[in-house]
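Hello Y.,

Per our agreement to keep a running log of every chain we model this quarter, I'm adding this entry. I've kept the format consistent with earlier entries: sequence first, then predicted structure.
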Amino acid sequence: MTSPSVGAVVIGRNEGERLLRCLRSLQGQVQQLVYVDSGSSDGSADAARALGAEVVNLDLSQPFTAARARNAGLAALAQGCEYVQFTDGDCEVDPGWVSTALRFLQAHPKAAVACGRRRERFPAASVFNRLCDAEWDTPLGEAQACGGDALMRAAAVREAGGYRESLIAGEEPELCLRLRRAGWQIWRLDAEMTLHDAQMLRFGQWWQRSRRAGYAFAEGAALHGNAPERHWVAETRRALLWGALLPAAILLAGLIEPYSLFAAFVYPAQLGRLSRRMGHERALFSVLGKFAEASGALEFYWRRWRGQSRGLLEYK
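Predicted structure for the entry above:
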């Protein structure tokens, strides 16, 4: 019995040493290595070729999205490639991950996606890196979605139509939703998968990333919110309630009756409630993040009303 063919698709732009670390971590784990470059100016494409990767230069005459890059990498894989490891260029893949995930997918024919533990490489570098590390600590077992790093059945992804290229974020959960509708399963394994280097050291970076999440929530809800899955409807409503509707109502009421401004104490009360469950630090940024998420969601609705699309919201 021949071993299954596994390929890897790595996407990135100007990742420098992080990209080289990523590509080296995949050598020996996969039979075909594809790097999709989206306009790097730091020699990433040449460095990837030197490491034996097939390089795809993304056509930048069209708006860039990570979803477009992943689809371009998938298209470059050989047709006989049965499995594909998708990885962001700022991640290092654990040496045992691909074999672990492959064994799981082979033993579970209904599973289309296997993902494991993604951890932040430098969680102590900033509170924002720590927040990323905590964000990825999700429950094990059958899941609703994966992130940017995962081993997938190539045929299942192709049959689902690949990633939705118009999405500026949240393309993985949206693909997973369509896979689940087709009868496939998504699994998170108790195994080390990747080390991620967020390099998120400033408040402005975190705010921009949170705005992008809010935009993705609203766009995902607009696409699939009326379906039984109610995709990202609750997340969008929470962002709009806490980050836009409630503060606007308090301010308007305060113009009529100044004592109404005391209603703003609902935010410290919410902080206290969340702190009991997730700790003070995460609770504080969860509350603050709703304002950024609401900003992103409102931008989506504004642009949709005007018939406009949006380019990337990058935090690096």
